[in-house]
Structure formats: C-alpha cells, structure tokens
Specification:
The protein is α+β, with helices and mostly antiparallel strands. The protein has one domain (about 5-120). The protein has helices at about 20-35, 75-85, 100; strands at about 5-10, 45-50, 90, 105, 110-115, 115-120. The protein is globular. This is Craniofacial development protein 2-like.
C-alpha cells in the first residue's frame, strides 16, 4: 500500500541584486530555517528567481546540479551551496533548453536569460 505524500511548494523570490552580502546571507539563513522546519519525508519544490547563474558544467557539484546552467556568479554559488546544505538539486540544470525557452527579453540583438531556479529535495522518502 502506498502512503500519500505531502508536497511543499515554495516561491522564495526575493530581489537581492545590489544588496550587501550580509543581507543575502540573512536571506539564505532564513530560507534554511524554513526548509528545516518541513517534516522529513515531505517532498519540497522551490521555484524562485535568485538572480543566480549556477554555472555551465557541474564539476564538483554533480550531486546537486546538471550540466546545463549559465556561467556562475556569486548568487549562483549561493544557490549551489544552499542545495548542498539542504540535500536538494537545481533540477532545471539537468535538461538542455532551446535558446527561445531560456530568454526572457530580446531586443536589438541583445537578450536576457531566465534566472529562475527550480530546486527540489532529493531524498523525500517514500
């Protein structure tokens, strides 16, 4: 008999662009507390715009991400560190996307890439 599971879905978007490092670290610490408060065995999915590029390739970070990110920045490193701490994975890096599915704004030959991260708990139990 299969036991029903709870799915916790969080939208953790917070504009951290231009914020001091201390404020960014406080945000991640508060998010850690939220995730740690969710009972073990529940499935957790976070959809958020962290303004972070987690990096192309995954050398050293294979346990939390795939190979299809964008050049890593500080905010992206914070996403990867969070995923490691919480035993989660940045799931939208496991699949290659066509350019038109990654771009959010395009004008005059310039484009902006989506920065939305989808993070999911890896060991949600059964």
């Amino acid at each position: 008999m299969t036991r029903p599971r709870t799915l916790d879905s969080l939208n953790a978007s917070r504009c951290l662009v231009g914020c001091e490092l201390e404020e960014k670290e406080r945000f991640w610490s508060e998010l850690d507390e939220v995730i740690e408060s969710i009972p073990t065995g529940e499935r957790v999915v976070i959809g958020a715009n962290f303004n972070g590029h987690v990096g192309e390739g995954n050398t050293g970070d294979e346990e939390v991400m795939g190979k299809f990110g964008v050049e890593r920045n500080l905010e992206g490193q914070m996403v990867v560190n969070f995923a490691k701490r919480m035993d989660m994975a940045v799931v939208n890096t496991y699949f290659q996307k066509r350019e038109e599915h990654r771009v959010t704004y395009k004008s005059g030959g310039r484009s902006t890439q989506k920065k939305r991260s989808e993070i999911e708990k890896k060991s949600g139990g059964s």
